[in-house]
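ok trying this again, last paste got cut off
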Amino acid sequence: MAMLNCRSLSAVWKQGELAAEADKLNLAAIGIQEHLIQCIEAVKYRDLGGEWQFIHSSAGNGGVGLLLNPRVYSALDSVTTISQRMSKFTFSTNCSKLWPKLVIHVCYSPMSASH
């Protein structure tokens, strides 16, 4: 698991580059802040190639999302957009009695100069 304040992921080539680097580093997931990608859906699912999925909300004030490798994406149960700066990702696990769900929150805290 990694976190990245990317400062813009709106260019398609940047999305593919990020997925390729995550795959090369053998990462499972990357929390993304400030992706700056606009969408009309409450939650948008994007295939970035190599079966990597980027799940995000619209970027009203930067935007947050989670980049997932194929194995982790297959365990994704739900995505809840709490605000433009916070999303909740819930995953099923193999340890249903001890640890039935894994929840990851991806948040973005603005700088003091932003609104």
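PB: full thing came through this time. The first strand starts at residue 2 and ends at 5.
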